[in-house]
Amino acid sequence: MKTTKVSFFVLSLILLLVTGLSGWSGDANANSNSGKTYVIGTDITFAPFEYQDENGDYVGIDMDLLDAIAKDQNFNYQIKALGFNAAVQALESNQVDGVIAGMSITDERKQKFDFSEHYYESGVVMGISANNDTVKSYEDLRGKKVAVKTGTEGYSFAESIASKYGFTIVPFDDSSQMYDDVKTGNSIACFEDEPVLRFGTNQNNGLKIVTKKEDGASYGFAVSKGKNQEFLKMFNDGLVNIKANGEFKRITEKYLGENAVVANQGRWELVQKSLPALFKGLGNTLLYTIISLFFAFIIGLIFGFMKVGQNKFLRGVATVFVDIFRGIPLIVLAFFIYFGIPQAMGFTMPMFLAAILTLSLNAGAYVTEIIRGGIQSIDRGQMEAARSLGLPYRKAMIKIVIPQAIRVMIPSFINQMVITLKDTSILSVIGLVELTQSGKIVIARTFASFDIWLTVAIMYLIVIITLTKIADYLEVRVRRG
């Protein structure tokens, strides 16, 4: 097979992927009003402002607030659940039109974003384990570790007093991870936005609040600097209206009022109700794995044969490809493809496409080396013998070398399949809702880390063992054949 023909085939498949799957962005909760549709980034692990309920709907103060304003101002919206840091980066790279995620209005952020009028006065409190009776003030933190969530007011406040009270900051990306670090005793305390920690303690998250609320920045809705000003005006006008008609008060009291619903589920009941969301995430994991391995195999074939070919230039190109995509950590590659390239080139990339490209390029580099190693493991004397009998190079490769090389490659292909399946979990950093991200979302609502992570681990284990056994069976069949 000529390299140019294979390259054209791969490019055609990638174009098909771009055009045919561009709608796979993980969006949900689109408002059904007429008018322009805006894409809104958020963090659905920040209860009570945004999280996912048992039915898979995005709920919380921010979600209900956005829905009420959209109805009042007659605009459509789609939610992109990305995580806080990823949502902010998506706004910077114009992947979304706005962000609503309990985002504090600060002078630093005002340099990059335009904010709405504030809609919630927050503040910072300190939380400790519910069983801890020794920590009562900041003085008790000296020489200890304190957990914080990156990008929050709690993080900024902890930084401002860390040197004074002599404690070490331990950053996390999710509130649930921060709480778990405190409950396990790795950190003595955490700093969190008061309404968030209050909601968590009401839901029996295992912590308690021990300090009064410190002044903090207010929450606002953000758009890129100088962009979507009409949208920003609609948000502000709608906010005024829903405050005037009492809808805003109803929304906040629903989640933080005296009659707010408190979760009270048994462990097995909680796992049962979480299974649909986890199975959906598992389905996405398998889908991303299968599609990315398909493209990775094509890429590996192209560059693998280039590396064992007789053309020095093509061997050099293949070597550079392998060095680049094996050398860049997967998480960095994901950020670069999903945020970096669109920001530099001025276009929007669907999350599904970014995930497939990331996994395919990474796995493709390893498949290239698997194919190269498999071919070069065959004794060169066999090729020389075939050529001496008058067989052309290509026919000798196809009829003699490759069939033997495939038997050598199969165990490595199996390992790469398992590795790629597990690597999908890393892409939760760009908001991809696969099995690991599904677990995070459930834990953000239930605070049941042990039960949910155990369930997720078992699901991964069952799938990987099953796939490995099937692959082992096929390997035996091929070897016998």
Structure description:
The chain is an alpha/beta fold and 481 residues long. It folds into three domains: 129 residues, Periplasmic binding protein-like II (D-Maltodextrin-Binding Protein, domain 2, 3-Layer(aba) Sandwich); 93 residues, D-Maltodextrin-Binding Protein, domain 2, CATH 3.40.190; 214 residues, Orthogonal Bundle (MetI-like fold). 59% of the residues lie in helices and 11% in strands. It has 17 helices and 15 strands. It has a five-stranded mixed sheet with strand order 11-10-12-9-13. Helix 2 packs antiparallel against helix 9 and helix 13 packs across helix 15. The longest helix is centred in the middle third of the chain and has 42 residues. The N terminus is likely disordered.
What can be said about this structure in brief?
With 481 residues, this protein is an alpha/beta fold.
Largest sheet: 5 strands, mixed
Distance between the termini: 25 Å
Under the CATH scheme, the architecture of the largest domain is Orthogonal Bundle
Note the beta-strand portion: 5-15%
What characteristic shape results from the CA principal axes? elongated
Number of helices: 17
In the CATH hierarchy, what is the superfamily of the largest domain?
MetI-like
The counted number of beta strands is 15
Helix/strand structural class = alpha/beta
User: Order of strands in the sheet with the most strands?
Assistant: 11-10-12-9-13
CATH topology name of the largest domain, in short, is: MetI-like fold
Briefly, what CATH class of the largest domain? Mainly Alpha
Quick check: average pLDDT? 85
Give the C-alpha Rg.
26 Å
Helix content bin: 55-70%
User: How many domains make up the 3D coordinates?
Assistant: 3
